[in-house]
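Now for a typical sample entry:
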Amino acid sequence: MRWSRSLIPTLKETPAEAENKSHVLMLRAGMIRKLGSGTYSYLPLGQRTLNKITAIVREEMDAAGALEVLMPALWPAEIMARSGRLEVFGDDLIRFTDRHGRQGVLAPTHEEVITALVRDNVASYRQLPLNLYQIQTKFRDEVRPRFGVLRTREFIMKDAYSFHADQESLEETYRDMHDAYCRIFERCGLDYVVVEAESGAMGGARSEEFMVSSSVGDDLYLECAACGYAANAERAEVGAPPSAAERKADPQLREVPTPGASTVAQVGGMLGVAPEQIIKTLIYRADGRPVAALVRGDHELNEAKLARALGAKSVEAADAETVESATGAPVGFAGPVGLEGIEMVADPAVLRIENGVTGANRAEAHLVGVVPGRDFQPGRIEDIHTASDGDPCPRCGEAMKLSHGIEVGHVFQLGTKYSKLLNATFLDASGRERPYVMGCYGIGVNRIAAAAVEQLADERGIVWPPAIAPYEVVVVPLDMSDEKIVAAAEEAYEALRQVGADVILDDRRDRPGVKFKDADLIGFPLRVVVGKGYLKSGELELQVRRDGSQSDVPPGELGGRVRAMLEQLVRLLDPPEV
């Protein structure tokens, strides 16, 4: 490709709308342009990168035995109503009414449609297992689209769905998909970590996320450097806190007035106590019944953990009327001491508090000198707080590190959730009708591109891994008015094309500084410079974007040298073996 025949509208200045590194650089490099809130056009360079990512995804999915299909993105709303996910997705769904008054939605993901498709076309265990995938645009009405193409209202996703006769078969495909995802992200040049995760609106039991560490990542995960345990903050377990030392004193339990103080900050300020001394008593509804959840004042209750601990399908914060009915006090003054007629679940960290403060179950009052085990005894002790930086690892007890991450992939074991809801069954070997056991596997294609920019860019611009760079090599003639330089550049361009290199020739009549800055900004892995040095020595200058190194190469050796250097760059970007 010749630069003069492409569309590469680079920008010198940072656009006012840009929020983060990948957003800034993809706009400035002429890869994307914003149309509206959370919607972007991909220009030729951006589309080339997306094409390369999807090619890698296809190769690995096909190699793992998955079959590609394409399903509609426009659905009748009733199919999501049957699965119950109209309510689960809520306002995130983009809904519409067609000219006939029928309700429709734009696909956020495809569990319902694929389940119905297989239900109507696969009848016997002999046709299983079956793994189908597609690469397609999805739609979600994000409250706050941001960070360029990292969080948008429409996005490109590879989603796969597997169907099985039993759990053992699902486990095998799940492992295959996990391994295929590792190969995909490694080939794309990403340094990633696999973390245990919550299934969320997808449902099912086991799931794992593939995270790329980034300060702008929407997700939080905890990782233990000592043993390798890693989990999403929503899912992360917390190891047992250090054994409580013998109490130095036996504090006196007493009630104190706390007018107007109902939050941890207000109570702590009024009584002069640290948040970790305060016991928060939070009243929730678990499948409709009220429960009391106890966590330390500096910890956040994890609703997913609470639901698992109680075996509840749903948990939600109780309204003010329920709180007062259960505790006898308004919101902000509940406490475990004397609380009766309600199930009480306490986080283990609560039991280590020696001289605590908690609500008195009376308006405008708190108790001080509270000792767990002496003044109250919870019915259950469960890990129910959201793990935080420094919490002990549940496997080895070492301190865990909290990091921000970009989720680029997610694999789920769905079980029979959707097959049962949509009456999708097959006949087993004995002729019995049984629901499919299902798995689901998603990859954010445009997120891979943005994550690579976030992770690898430097102060000069993007540094693309060769496998997903819009072009692997740029040939830069520095003086388009010099026939010898132009001829040498043309020969280099053709030589690289002959060896299969993905190359662009910068044939613009611009100053060398403009060409160099654009090449750095866009991030082509290799740059071949043809200038006055070539006229003197007869050798071309080969530069590496990643580290700025350069070497002189005879024209006849250029193709072989470039291929070898691209392979070397791929090895340098490979994540280290564990």
In short: The first strand starts at residue 32 and ends at 36. The chain has three domains: 15-236+402-453, 254-381, 471-573. The chain has a mean pLDDT of 93.
